[in-house]
Each structure stands twice: as structure tokens, then as C-alpha cells.
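I'd like us to work through together how a protein chain folds, taking it slowly. To get us started, please write out a protein record for me. Go ahead whenever you are ready, and we will take it from there:
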Amino acid sequence: MLKQRIITAVVLLAILLPALFYPSPLPFGCVMLVLIAAATWEWGRLNGYSSRMSLFFGIEMANSGSELIDFFLKRQSQAENASRR
């Protein structure tokens, strides 16, 4: 059991650390989006919702998060364009 947890931690760190130190915030946002959607799905299952409803929660959270990432990336690009003028 401990071996499986250590392997999982190493794999997650191998995904998270490059995304964390990438110059753009997009990879980190995408990794966090996947983790939050998975946590939302798991939350639904732990609270006794059906697997279909839990899946809906996870997908809806991913959809909302992707809209937020899109909004902030557009805002960042607008600010960069304004500073170049």
C-alpha cells in the first residue's frame, strides 16, 4: 500500500512540477483543472450521489474552470497588448 502511494506521489510530482515552473500559467491551470474536476467527482461519490450525477458534477466543474482559464488568458493577452502600445 505504501509503495503504491509513493509511486502515485512521484507521478503526480512529475506532472505538477514542470507545469508549476513553466513560464506561462496555462499548463498549471490545466493540471489544476483536471485535479479539481477529479476531486469534485470524488466528492459526489463520497456524498452518496449516483455515479452519473457525480460524473456530471466533475464535468460541470471542468467546464466552469475552463471558462475561467479562458477568461484570465484573454485578460492577460489584452493587458500585454495594451502595454505594447
Notes: Residues 2-84 form one domain. The mean pLDDT is 92. The chain is about 90% helix and 0% strand.
